[in-house]
Specification:
Layout (H helix, E strand, L loop, with lengths): L6 E4 L5 H11 L3 E6 L14 E2 L2 E2 H7 L3 E4 L5 H13 L2 E4 L5 H4 L4 H7 L4 E6 L14 H7 L2 H4 L14 H24 L3 E6 H6 L7 H5 L18 E5 L5 E5 L3 H10 L18 H11 L4 H7 L7 E3 L3 H5 L2 H5 L3 E3 L5 E3 L23 H7 L4 H10 L4
Parallel strand pairs: 1-2, 1-6, 2-5, 6-7, 7-8
Antiparallel strand pairs: 3-4, 9-10, 10-11, 12-13
Helix pairs in contact: 1-8
């Protein structure tokens, strides 16, 4: 597999860092998750429903990893953590800026003993700037970045986005950054430090939303914008059974295909650019029309129509969707438990899923032995509370 032989030390918690390192584990990296002794280890072990005592959240972010639980305030625990960092190719941390320095595992400390290390810090606002000390999770960074202001419900008021975009984007940009740094290390032999901010990741993901913001120095009128409902052919509509469907492409030939079949050719010219108020007669027609049939009836109606139509699936329906299944984006283990699949699909050396999710601290002693600790030293660490 692509990352076979790469050693990763994961100090992060919750979603962005753990998902980043799980992607690496799926493609062959050896990932050691260092869990805190306080609070029972990784917090997402206890978040949401469980199967066989393991939360679905944890299983979806920690499969294929090893778990070491160390007290970093304990001298022996801190020493072992530095030994783990010394042999690592990649270290990922996601503490609030300054915390990792107090724990003695910051980039300067690690690179002093491991100059080839690729070290990534994931945080809400990055390691510099006036917000460095602010606490924040996904939602707050989305609010600061302006994303929430554009995520409006049918009532025109901001709503919580369904996808934790700041977390997910930082995770995927982090994976890209780590792999770029590993690639560069092959030619230079040098490690690197990566400062990734959730807010930066969001801002960088808005290139198609900056028209009015940059050209006119004003915020957009959300309902009139191209990707937020300004086009009649790029919108969400309610059906007779109080479900929803989507028209998801505004090119004029799609409008022609739909409106020809609905016998309203007169509305086709109104689907031409620009988006905004001029398209309201078409939107009003669609709102009324789509309420005349159920979602299932519209699915059948659109079968022979060349338009980017889609039903709004709930998450269970989405996981059972034939496209999702055909792409192996839901996979089932030997117990019948479902898991999210691998989205990066290589033709050569594809990723492989190790469904096991480690118990907290399950690999304490095995990893200690690999680092050269004797049985007596391991016993002493255990008795001293280094393992939690």
């Amino acid at each position: 597999m692509k990352l076979e032989g790469v050693r990763v030390l994961d100090l992060s918690l919750f979603l962005p860092g753990p998902l980043l390192t799980q992607m690496m584990a799926d493609h062959g990296a050896e990932v050691v998750k260092l869990e805190p002794v306080r609070g029972g280890g990784e917090p997402n072990r206890e978040i949401g429903p469980k199967r066989d005592g393991v939360s679905v959240y944890f299983a979806n972010t920690h499969r294929g990893k090893r778990s070491v639980q160390l007290d970093l305030k304990n001298k022996s625990g801190r020493e072992m953590s530095l030994k783990l960092a010394e042999r690592a190719d990649v270290v990922i941390e996601a503490f609030r800026p300054g915390v990792i320095n107090r724990l003695g595992l910051d980039y300067d400390a690690v690179s002093a003993i491991n100059p080839r290390v690729i070290y990534a810090s994931l945080s809400a606002f990055g390691q510099t700037g006036p917000y460095v000390k602010k606490p924040a999770h996904d939602l707050a960074t989305e609010a600061y970045a302006g994303v929430i202001s554009t995520n409006l419900g049918f009532d025109g008021k901001p709503a919580i986005p369904a996808v934790p975009a700041a977390d997910m984007l930082t995770s995927m940009l982090g994976l890209s950054a780590v792999v770029m740094a590993l690639f560069r290390r092959h030619t230079t032999g040098q490690g690197d430090y990566i400062d990734l901010a959730m807010m930066d990741s969001l801002v960088a993901s808005l290139p198609n939303s900056m028209g009015a913001v940059f050209a006119e120095k004003v915020p957009p009128t959300v309902k009139d914008e191209r990707i937020w409902g300004g086009y009649a052919m790029y919108n969400i509509y309610e059906t007779k059974d109080e479900r929803f469907i989507v028209l998801g492409a505004s090119e004029i030939h799609f409008a022609e295909a739909v409106l020809n079949k609905l016998e309203r050719r007169d509305l086709i010219p109104l689907c031409e650019p620009p988006p905004g108020p001029s398209q309201e007669p078409v939107r009003a027609f669609f709102r009324d029309t789509f309420k005349t049939r159920t979602q299932a009836e519209w699915i059948e109606w659109f079968e022979d129509v060349d338009a980017a139509f889609a039903p709004v699936n709930n998450l269970r329906e989405a996981m059972d969707d034939p496209q999702v299944r055909a792409r192996d984006m839901v996979v089932t283990d030997e117990r019948g438990h479902e898991h999210l699949g691998i989205p990066i699909k290589f033709q050569n050396e594809p990723g492989e899923i190790n469904f096991s999710a480690p118990d907290v601290g399950a690999d304490n002693e095995a990893v200690a032995r690999e680092l050269g600790y004797s049985d007596d030293e391991i016993k002493s660490m255990r008795n001293d509370g280094a393992f939690g």
